[in-house]
Design a protein that fits this description.
Elements lengths: L1 E2 L12 H11 L10 H38 L1 E3 L10 E8 L8 E2 L2 E2 H15 L5 E5 L13 H9 L10 H14 L7 E9 L17 E8 L6 E9 L10 E10 L4 E10 L2 E9 L3 E9 L5 E9 L9 E8 L3 E7 L6 H6 L5 E7 L13 E7 L4 H12 L3 E6 L5 H10 L4 E6 L5 E4 L25 E5 L7 E6 L4 E7 L3 E5 L14 H13 L8 E2 L5 E4 L10 E4 L2 E3 L2 E5 L2 E5 L3 H6 L3 E6 L3 E8 L12 H10 L8 E3 L14 E2 L1 H21 L2
Helix pairs in contact: 2-12, 3-4, 7-8
Length: 681
C-alpha cells in the first residue's frame, strides 16, 4: 500500500487522546451510600466484567474511527502490478478541439460543451497530485504551463470557439514538445493524452513523427447529430467599379453540404441601405451561384452582409463586405517629347476623372500623392529615377499606362517593363499591323461591348514594336494584331500595368482618333480606382492597405460598437498596411464590419472567418487509428460519443484509491460508538 499524502499519517498521534480519556475514566470514583455493604458487593461483582468490556469496545471504536479518518486524508492506494502508474508523478494532457466545426450540436448540446464536460469528468476522477496540460488550437503561451486540478477546471471554463485552425498532429507535437521542454516527460513520469475532437478532415493529420515514449493516447471522437451545413461560401462583384447610379452585380456562392435538395432557402442581403430577401434552390452537396443587381444613389463608404438561414452551424452563415463608391479617379499624365493631346481630351470630357499633366522630366514623388493612375505619354527616355517612381507606384497598388514616343530608348523602357512584368520591347515591325482581334474574355473588357463580334471597324497602325515575352513576363494580350503580336497588353502584380506597343504620334497612324482608343483609356481609368479589398479572410490575408496619409500621433483602431483592436502598421512603397498576420490577431479578431479610425474615420474593413471548417467530413475510427499510426502511435484507446451517447465514461490509467472506503468506515465506527454508549448497560 502507498499513500498519496503520507504526511497526514502524523495525525495518528491523536489516538493517544481517547486512550488517555478512557484511562482517566477508569480511575474516577463515585461515593454511594447504602445501608448494606453486602448488596454493593453483589452489584459490583455482576457489573465489573460488563463495564470493562463496554469501555474497551468504545475505546476500540473511537480508535478505529480516528484511524480511518486520518487514512482518508492520506489517501491510500495499491499500485496495479506492471502498471505505468508506479511512476513518481502523473501528467494528464488534454487537447480540446475548439475549431468552428465544434459548434455543431451533439447528443447533449454543442460539441465543444460536450468536450469540456468530458474533460471535466475525467479530471474529477484523477488523483489530487496529478498535473494537467490543457491545449487548444490557440497554442498560446498560457497553454504551456502545467496546471493543478482547480486551475484545470478554470481553464476549461474559459475555452471558446476560435477561428484558428491547426492540423491535429501539429497540436499534439506542440504539446508534447512543451512537456519535453519542461522536463516532465521522462521515464519516471506517466503521461496520458486525451484527445477530444470531431476529427474533421479539413484539419487532418500530417505524417510527422511524435515523441510518444511513456505516453498513453485516448482519442475521443464527438459526432454531431446532423452532419449537414448551409453556408455562404464567397461573394464577389462582376465588376470592381462602384459609381453612383451604376449597377453593381453581386455574385453569391452558397454551399449545401447535406444529403438533401433544398428549396426556397432564404438569403438576406443588406448593403449600404439596400435590403432584399431572395429565395434559392440548393442541390445536395453542391455550390450554387446566384446573382443580384442594385445601385447606389450617393458616394461614400458602403458596408453590409449577405446571410443565409441555417439551423446547425452558424459561424459561416453571414459574409461581410465593404467598399467605397468614389466620386472620381485621380489621373496624372507624364508628357514626353512626342506627347499627344488626345489623352487629355478623353479624360477631360468626364468630371469623374480628375486629370492633371506634368512634364516627365520635372515630376516628383509629391506629384504622385493621392493618384490612382499614371499615364506616360510619348516619352522616349525614362530616367532610372522616374522608372523607380513608376515601379514603386505599381507596388503600392497603383496603375500605370505606358505609351512610348516615336524613338523609345529600349534600355530605359525594357528596364521598366521587366520590373512591372510586361513583355520587353523589341525592334519596329512594319507589316501585319492591322488589328485582328479584341480579347473579349479578359475581365478588362467585361461589360464594355454589348455584343461580342468580329465585325468591329478596327483601326490599324503603320508601325509597332515587337513584344519579346520572357520568363519574367505576366502579360495578357488585350488587343492583338494580324501578325500575332500584341498591340495592347496588361499585367497584374500589386497594381496593374498597361503597355501600348506602338506610338500615338501621327507618324504611326491615327489610332488615337479611333473610338477604340477612347474606350481603352476610359476603361483603364475606371479600373484604376485604388480601393481596399471588399473583405478580408481572417488568417489568410495578412496585410490590408491604407492609402490615406497617417499621422504619427494617432494610432490606428479597428473598431465597432463593442470591439476595439489596434493593429500593427507597416509601410512599403509609400503605402501603409495594417498587419493582421500575428497569432494574437487571429485570436482577437471577429467577423463583421469595422471602422478604421485614427483621429478621424479613414476607411472600413470587413472580416470573415475561413470556410475550411464549413465542409463537415470526419474521419472514422479506422482512419483515426491509421493516422495515429502514421505519427508513430501504435496503441490507442479509442472512444466515440455518438448521436445518442452520454458523457464518456473513459477511465484513465490510475490506481484505485481507498479514501472513500475510509470515510465510510469512519462513519460506521462513529455510529458503533454511539450505539455502545447508548444501549450497552
Amino acid at each position: 500500500m502507498k499513500f498519496l499524502y503520507p504526511e497526514f499519517l502524523w495525525a495518528l498521534a491523536v489516538l493517544v487522546i481517547p486512550i488517555v480519556i478512557h484511562l482517566f475514566n477508569f480511575k474516577r470514583y463515585k461515593t454511594l451510600y447504602f445501608s448494606s455493604l453486602k448488596f454493593i458487593r453483589q452489584v459490583d461483582q455482576k457489573t465489573k466484567s460488563t463495564q470493562r468490556l463496554k469501555h474497551l469496545l468504545v475505546l476500540l471504536s473511537r480508535l478505529l474511527a480516528f484511524t480511518f479518518l486520518v487514512l482518508a486524508f492520506a489517501q491510500p492506494y495499491f499500485p496495479n502490478e506492471g502498471s505505468s502508474n508506479e511512476a513518481k508523478e502523473s501528467v494528464l494532457a488534454f487537447y480540446i478541439d475548439n475549431s468552428f466545426s465544434m459548434q455543431a450540436r451533439g447528443a447533449e448540446g454543442e460539441l465543444l460543451s460536450q468536450a469540456r464536460e468530458n474533460a471535466r469528468s475525467i479530471i474529477e476522477k484523477a488523483p489530487l497530485d496529478t498535473r494537467f496540460l490543457i491545449g487548444t488550437n490557440d497554442m498560446s503561451g498560457s497553454e504551456e504551463r502545467l496546471l493543478s486540478k482547480i486551475e484545470a477546471f478554470e481553464k476549461l471554463d474559459n475555452i471558446e470557439l476560435s477561428p484558428i485552425m491547426h492540423s491535429s498532429d501539429e497540436v499534439l507535437k506542440w504539446q508534447l514538445d512543451r512537456l519535453n521542454d519542461s522536463d516532465v516527460q521522462s521515464a519516471e513520469t506517466n503521461v496520458q493524452y486525451v484527445f477530444l475532437s470531431d476529427f474533421q478532415k479539413s484539419n487532418g493529420f500530417n505524417a510527422q513523427e511524435l515523441e510518444t515514449d511513456n505516453v498513453a493516447f485516448f482519442p475521443i471522437k464527438l459526432s454531431p447529430q446532423v452532419n449537414a451545413n448551409i453556408y455562404i461560401d464567397s461573394i464577389w462583384f462582376s465588376s470592381p467599379i462602384h459609381r453612383v447610379n451604376t449597377q453593381n452585380e453581386l455574385n453569391i456562392r452558397i454551399a449545401n453540404n447535406s444529403e438533401n435538395d433544398l428549396e426556397n432557402v432564404e438569403v438576406m442581403v443588406e448593403i449600404g441601405g439596400y435590403d432584399n430577401e431572395i429565395f434559392v434552390s440548393l442541390p445536395k452537396n453542391k455550390r450554387t451561384v446566384t446573382r443580384l443587381s442594385y445601385s447606389h444613389k450617393s458616394t461614400g463608404l458602403k458596408s453590409g452582409k449577405v446571410q443565409v438561414v441555417d439551423d446547425h452551424i452558424f459561424f459561416d452563415d453571414a459574409f461581410y463586405l465593404s467598399y467605397d463608391v468614389t466620386k472620381n479617379v485621380s489621373i496624372l499624365t507624364l508628357n514626353g517629347e512626342d506627347a499627344t493631346p488626345n489623352i487629355a481630351t478623353v479624360y477631360d470630357l468626364d468630371a469623374f476623372y480628375l486629370h492633371e499633366e506634368r512634364n516627365i522630366t520635372s515630376v516628383t514623388t509629391d506629384d504622385f500623392q493621392g493618384k490612382d493612375l499614371l499615364v506616360v505619354n510619348g516619352a522616349n527616355d525614362i530616367s532610372k529615377g522616374i522608372a523607380n517612381y513608376l515601379i514603386d507606384f505599381v507596388k503600392s497598388g497603383g496603375s500605370i499606362a505606358l505609351f512610348p514616343g516615336k524613338q523609345p530608348n529600349k534600355n530605359d523602357w525594357n528596364f521598366l517593363l521587366e520590373q512591372v512584368k510586361l513583355a520587353r520591347m523589341g525592334d519596329a515591325v512594319s507589316s501585319g499591323n492591322k488589328i485582328n482581334s479584341v480579347n473579349y474574355d479578359d475581365p478588362f473588357f467585361e461589360g464594355v461591348f454589348e455584343n461580342e463580334t468580329d465585325k468591329l471597324n478596327l483601326p490599324s497602325v503603320s508601325r509597332t514594336f515587337r513584344a519579346l515575352n520572357g520568363g519574367n513576363s505576366l502579360s495578357s494580350k488585350l488587343v492583338q494584331l494580324q501578325n500575332g503580336l500584341p498591340l495592347f497588353s496588361s499585367s497584374k502584380t500589386e497594381g496593374t500595368s498597361y503597355m501600348f506597343y506602338s506610338s500615338l504620334h501621327e507618324d504611326f497612324g491615327n489610332f488615337s482618333k479611333n473610338a477604340l482608343f477612347s474606350t481603352l483609356l476610359l476603361r483603364i481609368g475606371e479600373l484604376s480606382q485604388r480601393a481596399q479589398p471588399d473583405f478580408v479572410i481572417i488568417g489568410d490575408q495578412t496585410r490590408y492597405p491604407i492609402y490615406e496619409k497617417l499621422s504619427d500621433d494617432s494610432p490606428v483602431h479597428i473598431t465597432n460598437s463593442d470591439f476595439d483592436f489596434i493593429p500593427q502598421v507597416t509601410s512599403a512603397s509609400g503605402v501603409n498596411y495594417l498587419s493582421l498576420n500575428m497569432l494574437k490577431d487571429f485570436q482577437q479578431l471577429k467577423s463583421g464590419n469595422f471602422t478604421i479610425k485614427t483621429d478621424k474615420t479613414i476607411g472600413m474593413i470587413s472580416l470573415n472567418y475561413n470556410r475550411n471548417e464549413s465542409l463537415l467530413a470526419q474521419y472514422n475510427e479506422q482512419e483515426i487509428r491509421e493516422k495515429f499510426k502514421a505519427n508513430g502511435v501504435d496503441e490507442i484507446t479509442f472512444n466515440e460519443i455518438g448521436t445518442e451517447s452520454t458523457l464518456s465514461t473513459i477511465d484513465i490509467d490510475k490506481p484505485f484509491s481507498y479514501w472513500k472506503i475510509c470515510i465510510i468506515l469512519t462513519l460506521i465506527f462513529v455510529v458503533i460508538e454511539m450505539l455502545l454508549v447508548r444501549f450497552l448497560k
